[in-house]
Every structure is written in structure tokens, then in C-alpha cells.
TrEMBL record:
This is DUF177 domain-containing protein. It comes from the Bacteria. Pfam families: YceD. Residues 142-168 are annotated as: Disordered.
Length: 180
């Protein structure tokens, strides 16, 4: 299955001095990505790339992503539009040289395997968009109602001679002590 937003480029067509290009999703691609990410809509998605060939078929992709998405506020459940921008870098690596490390370094550059001398810049942009989406989006200015989301302070320890709060497993603990 092809990605919803695919912009393939042959690695062999990237000059030694590098290549600059901009990709943009059309309406159908934005609609398909919105379904994929569970959003009401993606109004616009574009990414400007600087591609630099590396050693042994590697390609460094530096990207500048811009998107306008419609999200649903987790507080009010109202839809709202949000503009997002992100810069990122990733390294495309030939699939035969790609190694999935078990000890992933969160600070290391993402490496993406590719096959048949073709990298997909559209899918990379879509993945980067998915990473910057807020899992709990809030419409600007929305606030939780008074008292919601506040944690009550734990009850104070009972004074000597006072009965403390009921503990659900106190009877079981007493039984265990009696059998020991």
C-alpha cells in the first residue's frame, strides 16, 4: 500500500552539491492524512528540504515543515485550527546497510531505510507531522472548570485514640498477621 502523501525521488538524481526542493500535499492527500491521524482536517502541509548525499548511498535530509491542522479541544470538544512548524533532520540509509539498534539513543538522528534507490520525502513529512501533533490539544484560552483536575491532599494521619480513614485491605493485613 502506498503512503497517503508520497513524493519519491531517486537518490542518484541528487547532485554531489546537494538538492533543495519543496513538496506540498494536495487536498486529497491532506484529507487522507487527516483520516490516518484522526484529525477533523488538515488544511495545508508543506515541507522544504535540503538533501545532501553522504557516503555509501546515505542521504541527509534537513526539513522545514509547515502545516495547518484542525484539531478537537480536549476541554471543550470544539474544533479549532492550529498552525504548526518544525525543523528536523533524518538520514536515509540503503536497506541492506540499515541496522535496527536495540539500544536506541534518543538524541541520535533518525535513520530511515530505503530500497531501490528511491527515498520518500512525503512519507517523512507525514511522520514528522504525526510527531508534533499534541495528543491532548487545547484550544487557545480554554481552561478546565474549577476543581477539575485538582488532586486532593492526602488525608492527615489520625491522632492517637482517633479512628483513621477506613483502609480496604486492613482486615486482610490483620488476618495475615494472625496466621504468621
Amino acid at each position: 500500500m502506498d503512503a497517503e502523501f508520497s513524493r519519491r525521488i531517486a537518490v542518484g538524481r541528487i547532485a554531489l552539491s546537494g538538492k533543495d526542493l519543496t513538496i506540498e500535499a494536495n487536498q486529497d492527500e491532506c484529507a487522507a492524512l487527516a483520516v490516518r491521524f484522526g484529525l477533523p482536517a488538515i488544511r495545508a502541509l508543506s515541507c522544504r528540504y535540503r538533501l545532501t548525499p553522504g557516503r555509501q548511498g546515505e542521504v541527509l535530509a534537513e526539513g522545514w515543515l509547515a502545516a495547518r491542522v484542525e484539531q478537537v479541544c480536549v476541554i471543550t470538544t470544539d474544533p479549532f485550527e492550529d498552525a504548526m512548524t518544525e525543523t528536523f533532520a533524518a538520514r536515509f540509509v540503503p536497506a541492506e546497510r540499515f541496522r535496527e539498534d536495540e539500544d536506541l539513543d534518543p538524541e541520535a538522528m533518525d535513520e530511515i531505510p530505503y530500497e531501490r534507490d528511491t527515498i520518500d520525502l512525503g512519507e517523512l513529512a507525514a511522520e514528522e507531522l504525526s510527531l508534533i501533533l499534541d495528543p491532548y490539544p487545547r484550544r487557545p484560552g480554554s481552561v478546565l472548570p474549577e476543581g477539575v483536575g485538582q488532586v486532593d491532599a492526602p488525608p492527615a494521619a489520625p491522632e492517637e485514640g482517633e479512628e483513621g480513614p477506613r483502609r480496604p485491605f486492613a482486615a486482610l493485613a490483620a488476618l495475615k498477621k494472625a496466621t504468621d
